[in-house]
From TrEMBL:
Entry superkingdom: Eukaryota
Identification of the protein by name: Calmodulin
Protein source organism: Alexandrium andersonii
Domain EF-hand per the UniProt entry, residue ranges: 56-91, 132-167
SUPFAM superfamilies: EF-hand
Amino acid sequence: ESLLRDYARLVQIIGFEKRASASKQDWTLSDSTWDSKQAIQIVLSGLKKFDKMPSPEKREIWAMFAAWDSNSSGSADTKEFVEAFKSMGSKNAENVVDNLVRLVDFDGTKTINWMKFKAIYGLATSEESQQDMRSDFRDSFSFLDTNSDGEVSIFELGEGFSKMNVGIGLDDVANLLFLYFGTAKPTITVDEFTEWVVADRCMTLSAVQYKA
């Protein structure tokens, strides 16, 4: 289940940046005046949100960071972010990552260390409304629904997660769906998919006050 949550967190980060870009927030503009003072303030805000997360959520986010810091340099490889977002259907993955780096780049290194990683996840995932969350997962469903019939089969889910480098195999997908719905689900609709993933996120972040 932690692998499903890894997928969900990345979807939430893409949605967080997408909404910020749509509203033209300063940190999403390449020629903006976003500076180190603003960046440190946003990092501190994100860290406060991260600190309020349940311990299991924090541990899983640390595991994601450790996996992306493959050479133990102390910074996550931004190329890993780009590849992950591309594999999830993001058409401008490089810009998304550039914006996220700019958001937290208080030290001018253009890297994402553990402090910045925590801040990004705190900002993007800890207090996202269910409405925005549902919108994010509906967008992701469209990428998984390869034949655009409004449903995804367990085979489409397995193949989609494989392309995203999310280690959820076909049997895992079938078992997770059975555990949630209480019956075998060879296919699920967009509403069922959204309900499934949102329910998992809300349960995991039970210590966070969600807005309806």
